[in-house]
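User: Study the fold:
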Amino acid sequence: PDRSGRSDRVRCHGFRGSLYPVPAAQPARVPHAPASGQPAALRGLAGLRLPGGRNPGRKRPNRGRRHPGSPARHDGTPVLNNTVLTIFISQSGETADTLAALKLAKEKGSVTLAICNVIGSSISREADNVLYTHCGPEIGVASTKAFTGQLTALYLLVMDFAIKKETISSEKLSYLIKQLWNIPIKVTECLKQSEQILKIAKIFHQKKQFIYLARNINYPIALEGALKLKEISYIYAEGYPAGEMKHGPIALIDETMPVMVIATKSKVYEKVLSNIEEAKARGAKIIAIANIDNKDIIEKSDYQIFVPEVEEIFSPLINVIPLQIFAYYVSTMRGCDVDQPRNLAKSVTVE
């Protein structure tokens, strides 16, 4: 509920817990859409009110910031009060630093929302509101379904906020929901690329280091792909925003450095192609994640993994799939334990 009565400002903070994706084993199935045209999870958010209430005349979008959970109590960065909605993301619901940040937010009067997979977990009990991802039990330390489930939950949350704040039309909302409902079909198409990904993994599984590049909303997916490779194959990998490549990382690129580039169609596609040319000119082997029937990328890159084209806003859900599968194949070829990587625990229960 709105505790302040103010309608001039809404801030959102997101505290990230442990997100551990790994390759999906089964093709995704498309559930039946509810008769109302809205996913049941989105309808379930009807009881969650934004701090400050509706503000139809507002032209400027609400401000949101992401903070890691671990330093939240100590660095004084977050502005936490009763005008702020604070969102906590944790697969297990037991992540110690995220739980500590949640308690701090509540002490400051912030409205809290948990995005969580485990029903009845500590974080889900502590938060004012909970959006469960219902991804099912996790077996391995690293997981794919938790990451994509959390990402989907955030899409639903944003769409719900947008319609409540009247920043998009009902027609636009219906269109986005329809596109989101089609994502499982697109994911199934991605899984058909497993054989091609396996071939590429055989070529690169003995490399010592990797760079992952992407721009705009796919930059976090580059980070996720690099994280997966580090976690389960023990190869040093770093994700960078492609636009920052010439501000340092380009010094690392030579003929021994493979570069994984997310190059699906977007408003910054041409700039990504320019980054590919820069890396290739320095001898790097380029592995490109690109849309099906993209002829340009075949000429500019050494290896290609093709994915179906979707709305740019939903491209992270698709582009992360081949990166997860690639990490899985590399890990198994190196003889690593995919389900129980060394030094990692399922729930980080100490700060």
